[in-house]
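Continuing the batch. This is chain 6 of the set; chains 1 through 5 are on the previous pages. Same settings as before, nothing changed between runs. Recording input and output for traceability.
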Amino acid sequence: MSKVIVIGGGLAGCEAAWQAARQGVAVELYEMKPYRFSPAHESEMLAELVCSNSLRSNVVTSAIGLLKEEMRRLGSLIIEAADCTAVPAGTALAVDRNKFSRVVSRKMERHPDITVVRREITELPEQMDSPVILATGPLTSAAMTKSLIELTGEQHLAFYDAIAPIVSAESLNMDRIYRKSRWDDDNPGDYLNCPMTDEQYSAFIDMLTAADTVPLKSFEDTKYFEGCLPVEVMCERGRDTLRFGPMKPVGLAHPVTGQVAHAVVQLRAENREESMYNMVGFQTKLTYPEQKRIFRTVPGLEQAEFVRLGSIHRNTFICAPELLDQSLQMKERPGLFLAGQLSGVEGYVESAAMGLLAGLHAGRLLRGRLLHVPPAATAHGALIRHLTETDPGRFQPSNVNFGLFPPLVKKIRKKERGLFRAEQALFELAAWQNRLTQGKEGAL
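Output for chain 6:
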C-alpha cells in the first residue's frame, strides 16, 4: 500500500484527504465535478455548501461549538477555511460560501501530497490495495449506491433534505425590517427580522397550507430529518408550529419601539458583503412560483429578488451500527472507510468531523500504526458512539448533541453543564493527542 484513495470532494472528503496528507502519505482524491453534477450542486469547486451557509453555534459550551473547537485543535482544514471566510452571524459560525469553497479548493490543489482527479468513480474496488475512504455524501449516485448495497447486503436508507431560499439585500424593504439578534441587547445584531402581526401570520399559514409542492417520484419514500423539516411540513403539524420554531418572536422585541411581533422571519447574511441573505429555517419543497408568491407576502420581502430558491433532495446513509467499526471501517471490508453524511451523521461540521477521523485512521493504517478512537467524553467520540453503539433498529442520522455523550458522573447545575463537558472533553482530547504523538496509543 502506497497511498490513500478518497472518493468524493465534499467537506468530508476534503477533510479526510487533508488529514491523511498531513501524515506525509500520498493521497488521491476523486471528484466527479465538473463532468457530472448532483441535483443540488452547481459549483465546480470542492467543498461546495448546498443547504445553508451556517455551521451553527461557535460557542464552546454547546455540543456543536465544542466539536468545532476539537477540530481546530486537530488541525481541521474545514474549520480553518470557515474561520477565515466567516460572515457576521451572532454567536454562530457562518461563511461566505464561495470564498469558503475557493479556500478549500486552493489548499487541496496546492498540497504536494494530494492529487485531485476529476473523474467519477461508480463502484467500490474489489481488491483493497490501498485504504479507501468513501465520502460521496448524501447524494451518492445510484451506481455507487448499488455497489455499496452489493457489498453490505443491506438496503440503503433515505430521507430528504430541504434547502432554504436566498434573497438579494438590495431588494429588501428596510422600512419594515429591523436588525437584531435573539437575546442580544448590546449591539444592533447580525440578523435581519421581518415581523408579522397575528393577521399576517394567519394569512401566511393559510397560503402555506394550500400551496403546491414538488411531488416525489413514485419510488421515493419520504423520511425527513427532524432538524431540517420543510416549512410546509412543519405547518401541517399545527398552525402555531412555525411560530414556536423558526418564526418564534421570543427575544426579538423591536429595538426602537419595544414591540413584540406575533411571529418573525429571520434573515442571515449569506456573504461577507451582506449582499445576500438566507431565510433562516425556511427549507422548502414548494414549487418555485409558489415560493415567490408566498414568501413575498412576508413584511419586508414584498419585492424580494431570489438569488436561489428552495429545493429538496435525497439524502442517503447506511445503518452504521450494523456496518461500521469504531474506526469508521466497514466490518466486512477492512481498509474501506466511510465518512460524512453517508456514514450516518447529519450536518456540515459533523460530516467534516467524520472525514477528519477517517483520514486520520486511513493514514495511520497506511503507515502501520495502531488505530484508536477519541475518548467518549469528546464530541468526536460521542459521534462515534452514536454510529457504532445505537440500536440498529432505531438508528437515525443525528447532529452532535450532549445527549450522545456519556452520562455525567455527578450532579451539575444545568447552566454549568456545558462548560463542564467542554472542559472535560478538551482535557481528554489533549491527553489522546499526546498518546498518539508519543506512540503510546492502544488498538481499537
